[in-house]
Recover the amino acids of this structure.
């Protein structure tokens, strides 16, 4: 060991070998005083580890080591490098909270005029853009805290730039210094303290006094100027426990921190066998578990950690773990509150408040917690009547309503009883925001923050949440932080120092709160059977025997500060504070420390070729500090296409999702009800795809698209059909004047659009309504000619009395249902016509739509019409055909198929065979035309699976 020349800093060399924390624990116990009860007393020690996890691990080892000595231990204060100042100096005053600080930085910025801020912010945000001001304030707050750690403020940076002859750059920092001073004065008005500033002030004033405290630095590689000064001013003794052998003494300073000049350029030998090459983050996650599998079960989950270094790594690794039964991972950093239910709910409710649309309502209702609350609220209202409703019905009702009406605003009148109850519940929930009155008024941020906390309390108060579950932790922490934000905002606003700077609408405030709270992390439940994911700085001291580092790429390890326009790296280096050069040196040392502490082969480095977006990544320069020939071979491996030859293990997931390149028909449930009723249109569905028929007609699956903003083909057709139904039952149906027919149809269309889509329909609906109008006006001329030929409309949108007729097959009836668009009678010829309106963009003829050229039936809708209409037409052979209303107005016509009796007998025979097949359950064929779009298409294997032989 070596001692500082002033006698107050001692360096202890723990070596490279594994177990450094255990050796540090033993060394601390050796230095402890024995109290009157015989316990080893470390209460006057402050022990500093690079991360909180290392401190917790060391504390557990201290207790374990003391127990092995048959004594108890009075524990030290455990802290991290950033907390050394407060731990030693004990600044007086209540530190300002995280959220209050953020609000004050934003308020400080907005207290300046736009022209005053232009040297700092080229285009300042609008005054009302609270989120933008908060983001800028958070950037300044980060630099404020970082610089204070090196005993600098913004004015110091400006002075340094002026002295270097860089006045243009200095102007920005002079302006920033004005904002910083304004922020500090605002903090002072709250009777609280800004901790980094206060530590800076105490140290500059020399107010720190020496005490009896002792400081132990365990594996600390970097120490700020403020921390060093605090130790010098207050600690009786500082002991630096260095995780390296004494022969590396030249690479460390008096506090045991690395010397960048010594470590930056040192070579680093890594065996190629310990490096793996992967593609994107998903492939890298696979490589992680392949590497662990290579260890052959030597290590338990608790003896392995994963360094998830690349930002998308944790998510990819968790997804990969889910594919392997029995494999669990846990992110030690916790989970972002941005994905928590309360934060997501605030975002959805803010959208609903600002947009007041059915789209926003649909998104909000699909939040499970809000949906559950809505159902509970409605059912309490329905309880006296014995009624009850479920969320699935509410969502279906909403989706059908949105698809059928396309009414954009929830303020448009309608008569849907269920949606009226849903909206009443939402208005009750959001009453404090003015939502029920159709307003989004401005109020203070504190006011809206308390309303947000109260709204979350209303949603979650009735729920039983397992507090120790990951979901429970996320919910509890998110709600706690929203309340904390509200308290901080209230505390500041009560002083009046932010008057005029925190007034906004509820939707703006809730979105801001969600963004700020979402930046925090919540710890996940500890699990002994899970492999932990750790950040880079926690890895060197971790006692795990096996480590997999994923993301060994430039910009990740070592990290860079690219993109920091206010404090670029060159300026950092000139100021003598942390910069890219110091991080390179630190990371080079940490990597060597990680590898030395484990057996050969128990540290695996994974290099990615691309990031999550497919952009290429460079390998870390740390793995390119070797002999030239080895570097060349390594680069060849990285740049070559295909799988890395050193990835010798390829794991087969025990849980598979879509892992076949063809569609294997699933087995059919044994419990589906026999089909005893078929519509006239379902025969065509069976002919196109027996399996599609099964999904729709046996399992009753139906896809509802709640994302449409214009009429789809079915909705457009329904609109035109409904107008023509009204015409078929009107007094002008036998009119021969095309202008009178056109006038009626146009008026009927306008009335229907207003009643169905509101007084202010979406623009696409108006365009489509105009398209329908043009088609109807063109149809009017054809209709007039049809009447002049002797045809009269007898029935419009007609169906049998009980909706269906019996079609006998093998002495057993199959109920056939359907609706005939028009039944016309020719008074001159005595003929009947059964007609179907077609509004599709094509003008396909009735016969070719039903029959192939070889006579094979494609559809049976029109031939089956004559059975439905038997009570009207008797045994007569009717005309069967279409009334086409396509986009091409010249193609509008009355189109007759011209089938004779033999053709129709053939159609009946085809219908008979289909009924027999349905009764047998012959659905195991996709057919020639299965559904190809949406969820139904996916169920039939379209869109993401190629066709091929079925699975055996």
């Amino acid at each position: 060991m070596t001692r500082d020349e002033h006698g107050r800093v001692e360096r202890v060399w723990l070596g490279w070998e594994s177990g450094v924390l255990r050796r540090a624990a033993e060394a601390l116990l050796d230095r402890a005083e024995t109290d009157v009860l015989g316990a080893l007393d470390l209460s006057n020690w402050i022990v500093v580890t690079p991360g909180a996890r290392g401190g917790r691990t060391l504390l557990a080892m201290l207790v374990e080591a003391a127990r092995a000595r048959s004594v108890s231990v009075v524990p030290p204060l455990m802290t991290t490098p950033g907390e050394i100042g407060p731990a030693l100096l004990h600044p007086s005053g209540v530190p300002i909270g995280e959220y209050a600080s953020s609000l004050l930085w934003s308020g400080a910025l907005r207290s300046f005029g736009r022209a005053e801020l232009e040297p700092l912010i080229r285009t300042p945000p609008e005054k009302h853009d609270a989120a933008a001001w908060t983001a800028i304030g958070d950037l300044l707050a980060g630099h404020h805290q970082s610089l204070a750690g090196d005993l600098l403020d913004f004015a110091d940076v400006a002075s340094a730039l002026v002295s270097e002859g860089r006045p243009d750059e200095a102007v920005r920092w002079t302006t920033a210094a004005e904002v910083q001073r304004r922020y500090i004065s605002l903090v002072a008005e709250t009777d609280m303290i800004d901790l980094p500033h206060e530590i800076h002030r105490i140290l500059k004033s020399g107010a720190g006094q020496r005490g009896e405290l002792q400081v132990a630095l365990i594996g600390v590689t970097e120490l700020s100027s403020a921390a060093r000064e605090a130790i010098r001013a207050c600690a009786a003794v500082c002991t630096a426990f260095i995780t390296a052998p004494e022969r590396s003494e030249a690479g460390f300073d008096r506090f045991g921190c690395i010397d960048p000049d010594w470590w930056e350029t040192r070579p680093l030998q890594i065996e190629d066998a310990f490096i793996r090459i992967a593609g994107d983050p998903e492939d890298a996650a696979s490589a992680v578990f392949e590497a662990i599998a290579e260890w052959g079960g030597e290590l338990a989950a608790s003896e392995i950690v994963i360094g998830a270094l690349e930002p998308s790594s944790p998510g990819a690794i968790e997804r990969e773990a889910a594919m392997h039964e029995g494999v669990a991972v846990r992110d030690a950093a916790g989970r972002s509150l941005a994905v928590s239910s309360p934060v997501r709910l605030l975002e959805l409710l803010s959208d609903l408040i600002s947009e007041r649309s059915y789209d926003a309502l649909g998104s909000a209702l699909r939040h499970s917690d809000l949906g559950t609350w809505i159902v509970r609220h409605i059912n309490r209202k329905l309880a006296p009547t014995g009624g009850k409703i479920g969320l699935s019905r509410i969502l279906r009702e909403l989706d059908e309503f949105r698809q059928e009406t396309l009414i954009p605003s929830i303020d448009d009148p309608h008569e849907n009883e269920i949606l009226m109850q849903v909206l009443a519940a939402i208005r009750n929930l959001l009453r404090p925001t003015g939502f029920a009155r159709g307003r989004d008024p401005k109020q203070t941020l504190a006011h809206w923050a308390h309303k947000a906390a109260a709204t979350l309390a209303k949603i979650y108060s009735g729920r039983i949440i397992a507090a120790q579950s990951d979901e429970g932790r996320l919910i509890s922490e998110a709600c706690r932080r929203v309340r904390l934000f509200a308290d901080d905002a209230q505390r500041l606003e009560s002083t009046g120092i932010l008057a005029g700077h925190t007034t906004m609408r509820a939707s703006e405030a809730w979105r801001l709160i969600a963004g700020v709270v979402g930046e925090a992390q919540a710890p996940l439940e500890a699990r002994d059977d899970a492999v932990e994911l750790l950040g880079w700085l926690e890895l060197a001291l971790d006692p795990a025997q096996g480590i997999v580092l994923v993301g060994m790429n430039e910009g990740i390890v070592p990290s860079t500060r690219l993109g920091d326009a206010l404090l670029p790296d060159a300026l950092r280096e000139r100021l003598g504070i942390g910069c890219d050069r110091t991080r390179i040196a630190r990371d080079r040392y940490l990597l060597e420390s990680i590898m030395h502490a484990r057996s050969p082969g128990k540290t695996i480095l994974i290099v990615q070729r691309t990031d999550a977006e497919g952009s290429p990544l460079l390998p870390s320069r740390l793995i390119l500090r070797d002999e030239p020939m080895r570097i060349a071979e390594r680069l060849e491996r990285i740049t070559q296409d295909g799988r890395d030859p050193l990835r010798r293990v390829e794991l087969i997931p025990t849980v598979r999702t879509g892992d076949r390149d063809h569609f294997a028909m699933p087995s059919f449930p044994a419990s589906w009800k026999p089909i005893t009723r078929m519509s006239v249109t379902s025969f065509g569905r069976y002919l196109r795809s027996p399996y599609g028929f099964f999904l729709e007609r046996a399992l009753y699956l139906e896809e509802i698209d709640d994302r449409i903003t214009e009429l789809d083909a079915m909705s457009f057709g329904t609109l035109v059909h409904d107008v023509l139904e009204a015409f078929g039952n009107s007094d002008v149906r036998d009119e021969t004047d095309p202008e009178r027919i056109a006038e009626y149809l146009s008026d009927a269309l306008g009335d229907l659009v207003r009643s169905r889509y509101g007084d202010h329909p979406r623009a696409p609906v108006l365009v489509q309504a105009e398209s329908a109008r043009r088609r109807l006006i063109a149809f009017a001329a054809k209709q007039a000619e049809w009447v002049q030929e002797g045809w009269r409309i007898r029935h419009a949108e007609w169906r049998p009395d009980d909706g269906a007729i019996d079609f006998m097959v093998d002495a057993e009836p199959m109920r056939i249902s359907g609706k005939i668009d028009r039944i016309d009678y020719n008074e001159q010829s005595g003929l009947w016509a059964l007609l179907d309106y077609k509004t599709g963009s094509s003008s396909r003829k009735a016969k070719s739509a039903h029959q192939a050229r070889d006579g094979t039936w494609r559809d049976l809708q029109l031939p089956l019409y004559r059975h439905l209409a038997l009570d009207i037409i008797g045994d007569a052979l009717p005309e069967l055909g279409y009334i086409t209303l396509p986009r091409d107005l010249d193609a509008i016509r009355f189109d007759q198929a011209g089938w004779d009796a033999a053709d129709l007998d053939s159609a009946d025979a085809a219908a008979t065979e289909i009924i027999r097949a349905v009764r047998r359950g012959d659905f195991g064929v996709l057919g020639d035309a299965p559904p190809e779009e949406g969820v139904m298409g996916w169920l039939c294997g379209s869109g993401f699976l190629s066709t091929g032989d079925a699975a055996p």
About this structure: The first helix runs from residue 20 to 31. The radius of gyration is 38 Å.
